[in-house]
Each structure stands twice: as structure tokens, then as C-alpha cells.
Amino acid sequence: MEYTVHALGKLAGVSTRTLRYYDEIGILKPARINSSGYRIYGQKEVDRLQQILFYRELDVPLETIKKMMGSPSFDVKEALKDHHEKLLAKKEQLLQLIENVEKTRDAIEGRRTMTDKEKFEGFKQKMVDDNEAKYGKEIREKYGEEVINQSNAKFMNMSESMYNNMIEVEKELFSTLKEALKEGNPAGEVAQKAADLHKQWLSYTWPEYKKEAHAGLAEMYVADERFISYYDKIQTGATAFLRDAILIYTGITSES
User: 34, 40 in Cβ contact below 8 A?
Assistant: First the structure.
């Protein structure tokens, strides 16, 4: 069966503007353009759109989706298996948050008491699960199962005040990094302050801080589009600049 851009948009629940944009960036091209100039999509394009929407539901950036799906090694069956596992994890996150809301409501209405730790367990578990879904495979391969499990446990046991402090340190990191980028010197005082703030931020969850691990993480940042998009939201090149500042801070030579 074939669809016009309007018909496919209605079928998939996306706007025609979105489908036209997907065409423009090359992530979803129509099967053909008919004699009237309309985009026409076939079964192959329908299936590809389904895959794209699965990834978007998991907050994967479009550029990353395009690279993954354009790779010769891309396997639809494996992708569906991965989607299924991650969506089940997302379902579990939502159930935990629903339970947290119900407990809070019961506490407000006097049917039970709720500890401060319980109030934030659902949110912290969601952050751990989200991090695992996005980066779990890479960081476990790099640092090992035990280290990552200890890191997750440390985060889950974090007090509310410590969690708030961690968030404030991250905000200061971003503002300092933005200021350092204006100076343009990764060895400068402001850039080195950003590197130190990054160390402080990591230390809230890392079981043990090591310079080699810090430098290795910085190298991983510039090799992964997901990390690049996180830090480059300040400005293009922010991730590479932070990596350079961290390497100078730790005294570890770049792997590149």
C-alpha cells in the first residue's frame, strides 16, 4: 500500500511538516515523487518511520538515529528487541512514579507516613534507568559492572540535600564552561575551574575518583554524539573544549 505525505502523517500521528523535515535531512525519503509532485511512501518507508518513532520515544537524537539506521550493520530484529527492553524499562519507571504519587497522596490525606527518602526514590530511579538506557552499554564496557553498580547505588542512597548540591554543581559547571569558551583557553583559570567542577560533579556518584577514569570519560564524550549534543548545547565545540580542559587538569595525554 502507498501513502501520500498527508495519509502517512495521519496514519502515524505525526505532522506533515515533520515528514517533510525527515525528507530534508535524509532520514526518511519518500519512495518516489508522483507526476503531480507529491511525495509517495511505500511499505519500506512505513516500516522505517516506525523505527524512527520508536527511537524518538526513547529520546534518541535524530542525527544519532540517522547514523544507526544508515549503518550496514543495522539489524531490524535486534533493534526491535532493544526497543522492547527499553520500553519495558520505561514502563517500570512510570509505574514507580505512579506508586510514588499514590504514596504522597496517602501521606497528605493522613493514611500513611512517608520518609524523605521515599519521596524521591521514584525520580532517582528514573534518572538511573534513563542513564542506563542511553549510556549503560558503553560505560559498563569501559568501567566494568561493579563500578557502575556501585555508582548507581551511591546515587540511589544520596540524601535530598546532596542531590540538590549535585544539581547546583552541574549548573555552575555549565555557566563556568560557557565563560571559559569566551576566553578560548582550556589551560586558563576559568577552564580549569570548569574541569574541577566536573570532577566535583562526578564525585557525587563515582565510588572513587581517579584521574585516568576522568580523562577516559572526557575522551568518550567527544567520540559519542549523545554526549556531544549534551555539552554542545552551550555552543558548538564545547564538548571538545571541556575534554581538553580535563586532560590538562588530570595531566593525562590525549588518546587521539
Answer: yes
Do 3-70 and 158-256 have matching folds?
no
- 214 and 179 in contact (C-beta within 8 Å)? no
In this structure, whether the domain defined by 158-256 belongs to CATH 1.10.490.50 is answered with: yes
Helix (H) or strand (E) holding 4: strand 3-4
pLDDT at position 256? 47
Segment 201-255, tens digit of pLDDT: 998 888 888 899 999 989 988 988 878 888 999 999 999 999 999 999 999 876 5
What pTM was computed for the model? Answer: 0.49
What are 57-101's pLDDT values in tens digits?
Answer: 877 888 888 988 888 888 888 888 888 887 777 777 677 667 766
Task: Give the start-to-end residue ranges of the domains of the chain.
Answer: 3-70, 75-157, 158-256
d(Cα 229, Cα 62) in Å, to the nearest integer?
Answer: 11
Residue 58 CB contacts under 8 Å (≥ 6 apart), including other chains = 83, 86, 87, 90, 133
Question: For 174-188, what is each residue's pLDDT tens digit?
Answer: 999 999 999 999 999
The values of phi and psi at residue 61, to 5°, are -60, 150
The identity of residue 190, as a single letter, is: V
Angle at 188 between CA 184 and CA 189, to 5 degrees: 130
Q: Which fold has domain 3-70?
A: Multidrug-efflux Transporter Regulator; Chain: A; Domain 2 (1.10.1660)
Per DSSP, which regions of 11-159 are E strands? 32-33, 39-41
Average pLDDT rounded to a whole number, residues 130-144:
69
